[in-house]
Amino acid sequence: MIETLLPYYQYFKAVHIVFVISWMAGLFYILSLFIYHTEANDKPEPEKSILQKQFVKMEATLWKIIATPAMIISVLAGASMLTLNQGLLQADWMLVKLAFVVGLLIYHFICQNIVKQLKNNQYKLTSFQLRLWRELATIFMIAIVFVVILKSAINWIYGLIGIMGVAMAIMIAVRLYKNYRKKRGE
Predict the structure, then answer these.
(1) Binding site for heme: which residues?
(2) Which of 48, 56, 72, 175 has most Cβ atoms within 10 angstroms of its Cβ?
């Protein structure tokens, strides 16, 4: 049965990859917009109001036209692949990947909430906190790619240690960047 559906599976796989890339691009970019939007609070008027109005527009457009549709198509294409090849659900690596995907979906909806908060002039996170938050998407992406590529060959303990190491390196880099910006007076 799977042999007759294999061409369809490959199309779903291609669509899945394309839209996962789009989804990740949307998540990375929306967080950059959040950071700049938050930093616009430090600008004098009328620059502050002009920037904030523009960021609200850009965030809404990015979220509604790119990030959310890409997330929906990614999930639908992935679900279609699992429907066509249900044996994947028996693989440990797929269960780990799906756990990371659930984490990424939660991350997506938290970002959606931040879009709404910023639209309503609610600034609950600093630009530094948003920079750290942005890097969480990077950690999810790295974890998912390594699990999918290495599959059952991965040693989960070493993989987890590696992901934690990458997370620590990213957080140190964000902290160093903050100090660099502080020294430059930004």
Answers:
(1) 16, 97
(2) 56
Kindly report the number of other CB atoms within 10 A of residue 79's CB atom: 12
Annotated domain spans of the chain: 1-152, 154-185
* Cis amide prior to 46 (ω within 30 degrees): yes
Range with the largest mean pLDDT of 42-51, 84-93, 130-139: 42-51
Q: How many CA atoms, within 13 angstroms, populate the side-chain half-sphere of residue 176?
A: 6
Q: What's the rounded Cα separation, in Å, for the pair 166 and 5?
A: 38
pLDDT tens readout for residues 122-136:
999 999 899 889 988
Name residue, tokens 């949307």: 26
Backbone angles phi and psi of 91, in degrees to 5: -85, 130
Q: Output the known binding site.
A: 16, 97
- The beta strand positions in the chain, using DSSP E, are none
Tell me how long the chain is: 186
Residue 15: Cβ-neighbour burial (10 angstroms; 0-12, 13-18, 19+): middle
Band the pLDDT of 156: cuts 50, 70, 90: low
Helix (H) or strand (E) holding 50: helix 47-62
> Would you say 93 and 152 are in contact if contact means Cβ atoms under 8 Å apart?
yes
